[in-house]
User: What shape does this take?
Amino acid sequence: MNTSEHEREHDHVIEVTDLRRVYGGDFEAVRGITFSVERGELFALLGTNGAGKTSTVELLEGLAAPSGGRVRVLGHDPYEERAAVRPRTGVMLQEGGFPSELTVAETVRMWAGCTSGARPVGEALSLVGLERRPDVRVKQLSGGERRRLDLALALLGRPEVLFLDEPTTGLDAEGRQETWELVRELRDGGTTVLLTTHYLEEAEGLADRLAILHEGRIATAGTPAEVTAAQPSRISFDLPDGYFLGDLPPLADLGVSTHETTGRTVRLRTHELQRTATALLLWAQRAQVELRGLDVRSASLEEAFLRIAREAAGDRPGRPGRTDVSGTTASGKEAVA
Ligand SMILES: Nc1ncnc2c1ncn2[C@@H]1O[C@H](COP(=O)(O)OP(=O)(O)OP(=O)(O)O)[C@@H](O)[C@H]1O
Assistant: This one.
């Protein structure tokens, strides 16, 4: 493989250090972010709207020079040393921007003309499920089919590094699954992938590691399991007829960190899911009652994401609507611990 000494030393295919991007002289969209991606790893950048994901990825793709900090892709500066980096990377932008009068096959052929070692057109199209649409004009493709064509073009040169900016936006559920499958196969085949996405499920299912950006900074980063570990799990159920919350064992003894009630529905949050759920079910068994609507959920990336977004909006713990087990507040409002 065509690896530079730098790569051999670190095996960090992407290295980002204190990266900054300023627009119009005074708006800092990317405010000093640092992360690295190893060979064969799939790294996801998540973020609230306007968090700076695209601004960051464009710097990694060498489309602009950073206002501060450093980017290295395959050991090179992607802006200053574009010729060394570009042939080894595949880029799927949010807007493909290719001529819409051309057919699908003509578009791929045109792209192949400027790509060294390009896959055959048929192979590129069948990778993304467009093998039956070669003669359709690009302007006649659906939004989802255009995203697939964008992906085919990004894969044309069998890239070592693949940048995917919201690759499944506009795809239906089946198309999304197919794209995920393809991305997994590419990663398993050794391709390093940097993905931005709005779909938390996408990041949770695909990413080896991820970072959640907020207002140009990394709010949290790690494996999906690490990022979710700090979040509480949720249990909800309906109180059996004739029972009140006070009839349950003391919630603090069950490992519950917060609770809330809406009518007869009880929602608990716990960092000890197994202990809390077991104690609750044992109580129900002894009382010979059924916990209708019982729903037990592990902590998810969605929780972590919402927490970051809500904390940013100033909705911090301790506000009305949330009840600490040691406190006394009760309310029907949805709460985030
Ligand atoms: N060319 C530009 N000139 C000025 N401001 C810009 C420019 N491009 C982006 N911005 C601003 O920079 C911030 C980050 O934008 P960016 O598109 O990187 O965010 P994002 O995380 O990709 O957002 P989204 O999820 O909504 O696509 C936003 O406030 C955006 O309005």
